[in-house]
Amino acid sequence: MIAQTIQLSLAPVFVLVAIGNIMNILTTRLGRVVDRSRILQKLYAQTSGTEHDTVVIEMRYVDRRIQLISHALLVLVSSGIGIGVTVGTLFLGEMLGREFRIATELTFFAAITLLMVALVYLLLETRLVARSLRLPPEFLELHRGEL
Question: Which residue in 21, 43, 55, 142 is a FRET match for 49, CA 20 to 30 A apart?
Fold first, then answer.
């Protein structure tokens, strides 16, 4: 029955919406990182000594962030394709009067696994940001106590 197939396909479609939202977050983060990399490339040529070393260190962080976000996006797209194949197998089975249960289960499992991998990449990227944005202790003036 097509109504039952539509009902079955709703869960994967909700996962697809979540994937799209995560991709939106990641592309926004990627845009900001790319903007920062352009600023750092200009500073690279204009600095020397300790200031130059600081720019190079930040450029390395930015490069790693770009890699992590790019990997996360690739894995999310793969996950989205897996969800699409899952829904496709549901409808194809309905149209052909056959059940592709194993294919549907495998593609859905693969898609969810890929989604989890992408979330790990996002976690790694945010941890990298937190680590790279630590304020130097001298700026915190901890010797002054609570303000």
Answer: 142
- Which band of pLDDT confidence, cut at 50, 70 and 90, is reported for residue 16? very high
- 21 φ, ψ to 5°? -65, -40
Number of H helices, E strands in the chain: 4, 0
d(Cα 117, Cα 19) in Å, to the nearest integer? 12
Q: How far is residue 85's CA from residue 82's CA, in Å, rounded to a whole number?
A: 5
SS3 145: coil
Q: Where are the domains of the chain?
A: 2-35+69-133
18 phi, psi to nearest 5 deg = -60, -40
Identify each DSSP E strand in 14-145 by its residue range.
Answer: none
pLDDT at 127: 95
**CB of 72 closer than 8 Å to CB of 139:** no
pTM to 2 decimals?
0.84
Give the pLDDT score at 147.
67
